[in-house]
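Input record (one chain):
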Amino acid sequence: MAPTTSNPFAEITFKLKDRYKWLKTTTIFASLFCLSILLSCNSSTDPESPEEEVIDPVDDPVESVGAALNYRNHCGGCHGQNMSSFVEREWTYGNSSEEVVQSITNGYTDNGMPAYGATFSEQEIQELTDYILTEIEGKTLAMLEEENPDLSGLISSDDLSFRLETLTDEIPGVPWGLEQLPNGDILVTERGGRLFLVQNNGVLVEVTNLPDIVSEGQGGLLDVIIHPDFENNSLVYLSYSRANPNNGSQLATAVARGILSGNSLSQVEIIFTALPYVDSGAHFGSRLVFDNNGYLYVSVGDRGRRDTYPQALDNAIGKIHRIHDDGQIPTDNPFYNTSGAVNSIFTYGTRNPQGMSIHPETGAVWEGEHGPQGGDEINLLEAGDNNGWPVISYGINYDGTTFTDLTELDGMEQPVHYWTPSIAPCGMTFVSGDFYGNWRNDLFVGSLKFEYLHRLKMNGNEVVGHEELLDGIGRVRDAQMGRDGYLYLVVEGPGRLIRLVPEQ
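The corresponding structure, as predicted from the sequence alone:
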C-alpha cells in the first residue's frame, strides 16, 4: 500500500505551531515565531528546507536560540519539551556541566541515548548543556504540572465535541499501559516496575507479586492486557524487561501471566522471552493484543541492534510474535516449519513498536513504531511480512547522517502512513462502538514528542485526513478503548488517567 503523508504546507504549519508552543515564554521566542511565520510565506514546498530553520533574532543571543531549537528537535522527544525528565530525578551519568557535555557528545546507545558529537560542534554542545541546566534550575515537578494547559470545559474537534474526565492525576513515575477490567476498574503499568489498579472512585491500589522486573533505560514494566475470558479465569498478562538469569547486565523483552485476585497476582509464570538477551536498555517494544481468535501478539523492538537482528529469522528481536494464551506456538505461524527460524515470528523488520491495535471491523493487527530521526510508521500486519527495518526507511540517523538510501524494495512492505518529522508515537487504538460518531474506526495515536493525541481519519485501510487533539496535554503513553465503550488515555507529567466523554 502506498504511504500517506501530510502535504508540505501542513508540515510547515505543524512545525511552526510546535515551535511557538515551546518557545513562547520569552521575548526571544516570540520573535522567533514571528520570523518563522514570515519564512513560511516563501515559495518553498519542501517541509525540510534549510530556510525552515534559519533564525536571526538580531538583538538576542544566538546561543540560546540555537540551543532551544536543538533541544526541541533532538532532545524533547525523549526528555519532554518541558524537560520534565530532568527535574527531581537522579542523573544516571551525572548532572555537572562536564558530565552532561560528555553524555551529549558520546551518548549511551545501550540505554537509548544517541551520540551527538558528529551532529553538533563543541560550542553547540556546550550551549545546549548550559541551556538545559539553566532552564531546569529551581524547577520542581509541581511547577511543571501547573504549566499544563487548562483542558476543562467543552473541547471541539472536526467531528465531535467532548469533555475530559481525569480519573486520577496521582500515578507516580512513568505510566505506560492501561487495560480496563469488566467491573470498570483500570489496570495501569508504571515503567519503574509497579502495577496499579485504579478503582472506580479514583483510588489507586498497588498490585503485588509481580514477576522480577528490571527498570533500566527504556525498559521496565511495559504493557498490560487481560485474557479474553478474564471473567472466568482472571488472567492478566504483563510485558516487561527481564534479566538474564546467568548475566544480570543482559536484558530481554518478556511476557508473564498471573491470576488477579484482589490486589495480588498468583501463579505467575513467564510464557515468552524474546531471545537473545542483550546488554542494552533500548527498544524493548512492547505492546500486547489479543486478536478475535484468541491469539496473543507481542511486539519486540530491535534492542538498539538494528544491523544484527531485525532482518534475521534466527532470533526474536525486532519482530512481532504470535503465540497461544499459554505461550505455546501456533503451528500455522508463517515460519513454524522454516529451518533455523524462531517459530513464534509473525512479522519481522521492526524497529521499536510501542503501539498495536486490532481493527474493530476487519480484525486485522495494526502496529505503530518509532522511526529514528523521521520515519515513524503505522503498519498493517499480515503473516510473514517483512516491514523493512533497517533496509528501507523514511528516516535518518539522529546525527543527521543516512543509514540507507532506500525507501522501497521488492519483498518489503510499505507503511500505511509515516510521519516526517517524527512525533514519537506510543500507544494507539482504533475507536469502536457508537459513542463517538464520525470517529468510529479512526486510529488514535499518542505523541510523546509533541504531547498530543493524533487522530488518523480512516477510510478502510487508507488515511484520508489528520487532526491533532489535546495539544500540550502531556506525553501520551497509551490510548485504549475501554470495555465500557469510552476512550481512555494515560499521560505523564503528571501521571494521569483520562476518559474522553462525548457531549451528548
